[in-house]
Amino acid sequence: MKEGIHPEYRSVVFHDLSSDFKVLTRSTASSEETIKWEDGNEYPVIKFDLSSASHAFYTGKDQQLNDKGGRIEQFRNRYGKSAAATENVEQAPVGAVESGPAEEGAAESADS
């Protein structure tokens, strides 16, 4: 390797904050924070929110959306759309158009 152009490759602890999972590996990532590892040495620590210890794909907890009522229900709860308001829109027949005053006059003149 060419000298002076590559970042330092060293031991680093990655810490998943959501599951308190820690792993010691080698990386070029840098951090000002350090942590004391099980071997008694201090290593730089990189904190993040998601790893295989907390990701739904790996933990098998991806069914939580169904437990909460599904995505549509979550959207309605979050943004305040009531189920009754959306049912009225869904029940209107496709192609049904309410006739206004201008359309009624046009229909009468066509009958004459």
Describe the model:
- The chain is α+β, with helices and mostly antiparallel strands.
- It has helices spanning 56-59, 64-67, 70-79, 83-91, 101-111; strands at residues 10-16, 21-27, 34-36, 42-48.
- Among the domains are: 10-54, no CATH class; 61-86, no CATH class.
- The protein has five helices and four strands, in the order E-E-E-E-H-H-H-H-H.
- The chain has a four-stranded mixed sheet with strand order 2-1-4-3, with no helix packed on it.
- A hairpin with a 5-residue loop joins strand 3 (34-36) and strand 4.
- The longest helix is centred in the C-terminal third of the chain and has 11 residues, at 101-111.
- The radius of gyration is 30 Å and the shape is elongated.
Oligomer: single chain
User: What is the N-to-C succession of helices and strands?
Assistant: EEEEHHHHH
Largest sheet: 4 strands, mixed
Q: Estimate the mean pLDDT confidence.
A: 74
Q: Which spans have pLDDT < 50 for at least 5 consecutive residues?
A: none
Shape: elongated
Radius of gyration: 30 Å
Beta-strand content bin: 15-25%
Structural class: alpha+beta
Distance between the termini: 93 Å
Instruction: List the strand order in the largest sheet.
Output: 2-1-4-3
Fraction of residues in H or I helices = 25-40%
Query: How many strands in all?
Result: 4
Q: What is the number of helices? A: 5
